[in-house]
């Protein structure tokens, strides 16, 4: 999130699209309803009339997989009706930048951008470049009239997204489109704010990244980024998803979103030179220019005294990806299916139910030599070998089960959707001899290290050189405990030498103390930090270590709900990202009634008690004065190389502007907008008869005539591993169901309670029919399109009698977004029939 949960109350219009907060993030609804009490308008756009829609001021249905068409129509509406915030757009976005005149767009190339290579399914982005002047700075046209400026290209690109066309694609009635567009576009004024709340309903598509990009364009046009009540806000589906991503859970990043090294980046100097963005614009902060400090401090944190300047701070010990390797979920299980892995740790997950195309996933597990399942209970993953379609005699995989402690049986931090790192205390001791994950990892590390020391190995250095001093005496069965506070402090970072300000001579930090901010991190080995964005989360004050994440003060002087002394928010406790965009060029808030920060020329310095110009309010995006200061002023979007918000985004794999493409499986023979049916840059695992049988897909095939989507219900959690074992929750939602419209039910002769079989090209699942008015048929391209929906919380392993049926992911395809490879689980094709017998 750019903002945070409580900030929803500051919005004038809330757009819920791609999420269902009333059912899946119920605490957030408290703040949504607070906004409504103050007169805010709530808009819900969803294929189903959800519980959130039941509380909305307006609801608009749309066919799954057509969000970009819907949002593209809104962009056109905003531009055609001059409802954009011009001063914000000109000064804080790249709208005025001039683009390479050789760029061709989908309106000219039948759905493609220039530079496309059909054989590689990828783009050469040379024509997507920005024109530079003799100083190496972007050429600009502040009047926004040049035909090659971003603003005019944006207008040209979305001129094709007419109301008629959008309605024809999405199935949304035109009058609903206008109602939503007009209401949300009303926030393009200094005194109004609009926020968007999304979740997996946007991300789990082959155009998932571009769904969010389209909304980012809208928010930038309306001036809704950096302000109270604004932003692009991801509703995280688990309490620590944000934290796990921050700490490098994904294959392509190290902690703090540092790029994962590849084999071509042979030494630390090369890594820094090749991955650090550069700018010649003195007004751009370009914060990623500090990457050398962050990677060096990270190496010092993990290798300690073994990391020296002479050995490149141990950079050679870091694992490296082969150039071009994509080790995301779909690719990992594809390689596992091919027998390319010996072993697999399923740590706190249940891929046999959560992974797309679960039949393929389960078969892939059978190709392993061994698997370790770390979880609270046995699950479909740990018992895959005895599941449906498996003959245990044929499965050679040796499975180990390590029962772990639950979240209330261990201490540590979680980081919520709003980036607030909050400390949780242990409520009870682990039961049944289970262990916290950290202690398992500690024991595993010790034993692997001992084996390397005893037996040697091809490359022991990354393990034997680790700095690992988290252990304390005590524990179960000879397994020592770890002090999780030591881990948190390592993440925060230390001053390894006295750090002195080179300009003033002031001592910034003393040797041995915890770092007070990532601004102090160095690239010479004199600081350590396990994750630069979490530096300050555990700090020293008056000689004492202070766990900032454990703070619980409820003061809120602004009344905006920032609660700056409750827990701690990365980075440096900043509650709203890019908050320098909430002020005008002089540093004064666009909306004084909802001031996030403001420039105060007479601010009193608490140390000197003298008036010193500075920012008041939330922690600003850097201390530099506002842009009106021609010598020292800086652009507001400090993490971007050019310093401004990107209406034009040439960094993505599938286009600098979002373009509507159909899902891999869809009910249409052709894309109504262009000749290009699906995302041209997405990887096809099965194409033109080539590929694994398990990856087959069928589009516009009468055997699978209905659009399907997966979703969650309030009563269950993820794949249901925890909640299916709670009898009261299982009683509320006992088994897999399929939601069907009244119209489709009548057509099929189905009534609520009938046992159904839902089939796709890849598998089938039994489900109980839920006939409802929450789904309605769509009119798309002159045809009637039906959509059904299934929750993905169920699996065969529990209840033990199989009454819950099995996972909805048995139906979903092997296909992903070309930028992230997140699977497309929200739009695919199925058939439904009554079960026999």
Please explain how this structure is put together.
The chain is of the alpha/beta class and 837 residues long. 22% of the residues lie in helices and 17% in strands. It contains 21 helices and 35 strands. The strands form 13 sheets. The chain has a six-stranded mixed beta sheet with strand order 29-31-30-35-28-34. A five-stranded parallel beta sheet has the order 3-2-1-6-7. A hairpin with a 6-residue loop joins strand 18 and strand 19. The chain is globular.
Helical fraction equals: 10-25%
N-to-C CA distance: 49 Å
State the major sheet. 6 strands, mixed
Unreliable parts: none
Overall structural class, as computed from helix and strand content, comes to alpha/beta
Task: Give the number of helices.
Answer: 21
**Shape verdict:** globular
| Rg | 27 Å
Q: Tally of extended strands?
A: 35
Short description:
By secondary structure, this protein is an alpha/beta fold.
Short descriptors:
837 residues, alpha/beta, 6-stranded mixed β-sheet, 5-stranded parallel β-sheet, 17% strand, globular
């Amino acid at each position: 999130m750019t903002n945070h949960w409580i900030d929803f109350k500051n919005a004038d219009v809330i757009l819920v699209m791609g999420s269902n907060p009333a059912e899946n993030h119920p605490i957030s609804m408290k703040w949504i309803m607070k906004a409504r009490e103050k007169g805010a308008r709530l808009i819900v756009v969803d294929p189903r009339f959800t519980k959130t829609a039941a509380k909305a001021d307006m609801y608009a249905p749309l066919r799954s997989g057509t969000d970009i068409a819907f949002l593209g129509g809104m962009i056109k509406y905003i531009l055609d009706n001059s409802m954009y915030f011009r001063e914000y757009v000109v000064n804080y976005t790249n709208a005025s930048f001039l683009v390479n005149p050789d760029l061709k767009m989908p309106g000219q190339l039948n759905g493609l951008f220039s530079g496309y290579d059909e054989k590689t399914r990828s783009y050469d982005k040379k024509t997507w470049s920005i024109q530079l002047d003799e100083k190496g700075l972007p050429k600009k046209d502040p009047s926004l009239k040049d035909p090659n400026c971003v603003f005019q290209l944006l207008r040209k690109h979305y001129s094709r997204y007419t109301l008629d066309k959008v309605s024809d694609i999405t199935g949304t009635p035109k009058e609903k489109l206008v109602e939503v567009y007009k209401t949300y576009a009303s926030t393009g004024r200094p005194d109004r704010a609009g926020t968007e709340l999304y979740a997996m309903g946007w991300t789990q598509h082959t155009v998932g990244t571009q769904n969010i990009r389209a909304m980012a364009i809208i928010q930038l046009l309306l001036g809704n980024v950096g302000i109270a009540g604004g932003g692009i806000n991801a509703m995280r589906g688990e309490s620590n998803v944000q934290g796990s991503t921050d700490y490098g859970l994904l294959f392509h990043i190290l902690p703090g979103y540092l790029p994962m090294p590849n084999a071509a980046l042979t030494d630390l100097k090369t890594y820094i030179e090749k991955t650090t963005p550069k700018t010649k614009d003195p007004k751009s902060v370009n914060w990623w220019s500090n990457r050398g400090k962050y990677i060096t401090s990270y190496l010092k944190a993990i290798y300690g005294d073994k990391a020296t300047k002479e050995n490149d701070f141990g950079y050679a010990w870091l694992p490296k990806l082969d150039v071009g390797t994509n080790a995301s979920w779909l690719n990992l299980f594809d390689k596992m299916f091919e027998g390319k892995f010996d072993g697999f740790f399923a740590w706190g997950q249940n891929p046999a139910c959560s992974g797309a195309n679960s039949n393929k996933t389960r078969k892939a597990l059978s190709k392993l030599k061994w698997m370790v399942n770390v979880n609270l209970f046995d699950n479909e993953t740990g018992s895959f070998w005895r599941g449906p379609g498996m003959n245990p005699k044929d499965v050679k995989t040796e499975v180990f089960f390590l029962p772990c402690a639950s979240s209330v049986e261990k201490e540590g931090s979680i980081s919520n959707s709003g980036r607030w790192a909050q400390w949780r205390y242990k409520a009870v001791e682990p039961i049944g001899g289970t262990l916290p994950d950290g202690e398992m990892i500690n024991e595993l590390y010790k034993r692997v290290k001992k084996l390397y020391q005893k037996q040697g190995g091809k490359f022991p250095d990354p393990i034997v050189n680790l700095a690992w001093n988290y252990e304390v005496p005590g524990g179960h069965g000879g397994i020592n405990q770890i002090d999780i506070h030591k881990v948190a402090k390592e993440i925060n970072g230390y001053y390894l030498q006295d750090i002195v300000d080179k300009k003033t001579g002031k001592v910034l930090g003393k040797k041995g103390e915890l770092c007070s901010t990532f601004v102090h991190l160095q690239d010479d080995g004199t600081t350590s930090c396990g994750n630069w964005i979490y530096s300050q989360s555990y700090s020293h004050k008056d000689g004492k270590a202070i766990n900032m994440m454990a703070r619980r003060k409820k003061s809120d002087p602004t009344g905006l709900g920032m609660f700056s002394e409750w827990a701690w928010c990365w980075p440096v406790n900043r509650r709203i990202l890019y908050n320098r965009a909430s002020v005008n060029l002089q540093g004064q808030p666009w909306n004084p009634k909802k001031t996030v920060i403001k420039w105060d020329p007479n601010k009193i310095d608490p140390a000197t008690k003298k008036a010193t110009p500075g920012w008041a309010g939330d922690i600003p995006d850097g201390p530099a004065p506002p842009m009106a200061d021609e010598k020292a002023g800086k652009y507001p979007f400090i993490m971007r190389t050019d310093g401004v918000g990107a209406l034009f985004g040439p960094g993505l794999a599938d286009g600098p502007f979002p373009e509507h493409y159909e899902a891999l499986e869809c009910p249409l023979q052709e894309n109504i907008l262009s000749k290009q049916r699906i995302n041209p840059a997405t990887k096809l695992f099965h194409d033109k008869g080539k590929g694994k049988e398990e990856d087959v897909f069928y589009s516009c095939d009468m055997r699978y005539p209905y659009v399907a989507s997966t979703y969650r219900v309030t009563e269950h959690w993820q794949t249901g591993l925890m909640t299916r074992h709670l009898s009261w929750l299982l009683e509320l939602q006992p088994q897999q169901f399929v939601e069907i419209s009244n119209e489709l039910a009548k057509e099929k002769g189905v009534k609520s309670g009938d046992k159904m079989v839902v089939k796709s090209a890849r598998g089938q699942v039994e489900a109980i029919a839920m006939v409802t008015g929450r789904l309605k048929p769509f009119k798309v391209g002159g045809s009637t399109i039906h959509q059904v929906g299934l929750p993905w919380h169920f699996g065969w392993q529990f209840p033990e009698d199989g009454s819950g049926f099995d996972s909805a992911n048995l139906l979903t395809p092997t296909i992903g977004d070309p930028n992230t490879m997140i699977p497309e689980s929200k739009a695919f094709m199925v058939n439904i029939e009554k079960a026999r017998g």
